[in-house]
Amino acid sequence: MKNIIGLIQEELCVAFKKAGYDEKYAKAALSNRPDLCQYQCNGALAAAKEYHKAPVQIAGEIAEILKDSSSFKEITAVKPGFINITLDDVFLADFINKMAESETFGCDKTNSPETIVIDYGGANVAKPLHVGHLRPAIIGESIKRIARYAGHNVIGDVHLGDWGLPIGLIITETRHRNPDLPYFDEDFKGEYPEEAPFTISDLEEIYPYASAYSKEHPEYKEEAQEATAQLQSGRKGYLALWQHIINVSVEDLKRIYTKLNVEFDLWKKESDAQPYIPDMVKDMKEGGYAHIDDGALVVDVKEETDTKEIPPCMILKSDGATLYNTTDLATIVERRKLFNPSKIIYVVDKRQSLYFEQVFRCARKTKIIDNSTDLVFLGFGTMNGKDGKPFKTRDGGVLRLEVLLKDVEEQVLGKMKERDMAEDEMNDTASKIALAAVKYGDLSNQASKDYIFDMERFISFEGNTGPYILYTIVRIKSLLAKVQKEGIVIDENMPVAPSCSQTGTDVMLSLCKWQDTINAAYEELAPHKICQFVYELSDAFNKFYHENRIVNNEDVKLRNSYIKLSRLVGRVLETATGLLGLEAPERM
Ligand code: ARG
Question: Which helix (H) or strand (E) segment is 82 a member of?
Fold first, then answer.
């Protein structure tokens, strides 16, 4: 379905041509003076140069041609050459009715669906999710939902970190604590126990302990490195332990991601890419891309146009060990083989941007990937505390994600004390509001920017916050419940009537931005555009709600129209918040 700006442009086009000007000037945009008009065209200003005429004269000619168009209530030329446009109320209402009839509110699915892999989440086994994992999960999930809504075939992959030194550290520490376990006996021939020798809470204690200890004790670190190497070369007992670590961790990770309303299609791990490494390395050598430098195998990735130093991409260390980027390159090989995606989007901390630049260049240079696949790095900024420094616990430690969520939930519950609600519903509602507070607080910022985690502001029911948006949805839900309770039958054959108030018009104009919002959010990988949209729509709706009698309107036709408009706003808001990964409760 054509967007409203497109429809306006169609009319402008005819007029520009009729007046003898190139139609390329017939461009419309939202007005930047909403107090004067709804849309504007600046084409006359640009055309003036080509046609050597005063811009306002051209604008005047266009306005004159279109003054009787049924699409416009008002179209005027103003100095120095703007064409100010206000839509006809019937035309606007028609558009809204068409939106309401469309399942996607007029936002057509793409004609050329692409296969897109989104690498997000960034979790590692054996380490609990901490606040640093919040952003990739929230942003990645939203991008995934937006791309899917646009009609693409999207595969979300958590790409679990499971193959590096942390595993060697856990193996080493487990060995120090329980040397008699069969995993360490190289002559052991039986079946290893089914039950893991540690729980998730054990792992959460073991890993930080071992990591800290290894920093002080070089011989311990060497032991862990050796264990990592043995694991990677297939020592049976270590593989069995590693499998336990994965099982215990993944179960816990899934639980927390579910709480976050984040769902991965794939739970692939770094280790899954390992089988692709030998051939990849062989090709890199044979293709003449890789060379030995100081014992290590590297690929040069610098380019003449570089303004900063881009170091070579190391593929194998001098002892033959693989690295984080070896795995990432092999994962590209794997993804290409399994899915042949036209795009891989990495939602990762922007501090890894140089790293990904190296990996992408290396992948292209060594022909792991050709031009039919886009590699996109969506680097996100840091979530800071009120002091402007990376968010920490009060004592300076890393804050576990679960603890943070619990905290927010408790704050929300505190605000809801007065509500007359059963405990179950109260808890469920609080968790939905808390999640919306956290997610919206994050997503409403441009992903690449740092932001300040301001709990008080985020959980506020007023202002540009998640709870405010949910509140608006809940308001519409209860309005519709009232309609039903009072036995009012909505006449589906009667369309939404042309607005007779400013607030009604504003709601409609906000709704008209849906298609462009979704397209921009997808093209620019920018969930914050959806946040802007839902906030504006919520605001417009709440003003409309306060100024008009909806369910109690004596004019039955108007009542029908207002209920239908409210219902449409509710549906659009729920769809939009769904794309952000939020869920509205029934009451709040
Ligand atoms: N697990 C990594 C970390 O903790 C993030 C993974 C990001 N994705 C990737 N393909 N490298 O930093």
Answer: strand 82-87
Report which protein residue has its CA nearest ligand 1's atom 2. 122
Res 393: pLDDT: 74
- Ligand 1 contacts CB of residue 348 (under 6 A): yes
- Ligand 1 centre and the CA of 346: distance in Å? 9
Which domain CATH number covers 9? Answer: 3.30.1360.70
**Confidence (pTM):** 0.96
What is the four-CA torsion angle of 198, 204, 206, 207, rounded to 10 degrees? Answer: 120
Say if 309 falls within a structural domain: no
pLDDT tier for residue 16 given thresholds of 50, 70 and 90: very high
Q: Does some domain include residue 219? A: yes
Residue 191 has pLDDT above 90, yes or no: yes
Residue nearest to atom 11 of ligand 1 (CA): 328
Alpha carbon nearest to ligand 1 atom 8, residue: 122
Query: Quick check: CB of 510 below 6 Å from ligand 1?
Result: no
From 87, 103, 131, the end of a domain falls on 87
How many CB atoms lie under 10 A from the CB of residue 507? 28
pLDDT, residue 368, reads 96
Residue 546 — pLDDT band, cuts 50, 70, 90? very high
- Which of 87, 105, 132 represents a domain boundary (last residue)? 87
Average pLDDT, the chain: 96
Estimate the crossing angle of helix 236-259 against helix 218-232, to 10 degrees: 90
CA 149–ligand 1 middle distance (angstroms): 26
